[in-house]
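Q: Here's a chain of 275 amino acids. Please give me its 3D structure as tokens.
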Amino acid sequence: MKLAVISCIHGNAEALDAVLADIDTQRAEEIYCLGDLVGYGPYPNEVVEKIRSLAIPSCQGCWDEDIVDGLNACECSYPSQLAEYRGRLAHEWTDREIHPEVREYLATLPLTLKKDNLCFVHGSPNSQHEYLLPSMDGFAALERVLSADADVLFCGHTHVPYERKLENAALSVKVGTAESGDRAQQLQEQQFQVPLKRVINAGSVGEPRHGRPNATYVIYNTDTAEVTFREVTYNYEKTCQAIVEKGLPPIFAWRLAKGMEFAERADDPSHVCER
């Protein structure tokens, strides 16, 4: 069976429509979404309604959570006061724009989805806000997959697609045992060989940061375990124009056109996130 995994649409209806059309050409039988349906982009209601109308199972992303619960989660990934300020403006705009029924839908989204040996999350099994970067310590990455009780962990949040294989991993556990008539504890070491685990990041449909404006997503074949990264062109200029016309920070249009993150670095090294 072919599965399509999409993530981080961020109110970009043009990109979502292009990706859904491409998914049709790949003949995927099921689609899973890893959240962040809203935020940054100009069409949050349209994106949510499309996901709902197609009954696509979706996780709750960090932006989805913040629109439901308010700015209650620390986003210390903001590298500067200016970047945090723009993020706050985007949240306030989206919060005003969103329809009540859309907000209610976002509140119902689960943190994780499971299908057989596959697990789908936004950031990590621990939090929508945790970044599973490809450079993450191998044991920590393995722990995230094991904690999800899965062989393959699909995530988003970073907006950069990648596949990471965690193989030839051996875990060592020391277990204390008391000998008969002796209260002293003897530590016995037990070795466990962990089978192949994988972390697959689907990238971003609506705000890619891999250096090009093209939308990205993943096709996964459950029969062969084959992973195919898809990159889809679309009329990103139309979305950029809508970002500016609707009053969102123009820098969002610039970085969408470039397919990259943009944030001033160290404008205030002592800055501590207000949240």
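Q: Can you summarize the key feature?
A: Residues 264-275 have pLDDT under 50 and may be disordered.
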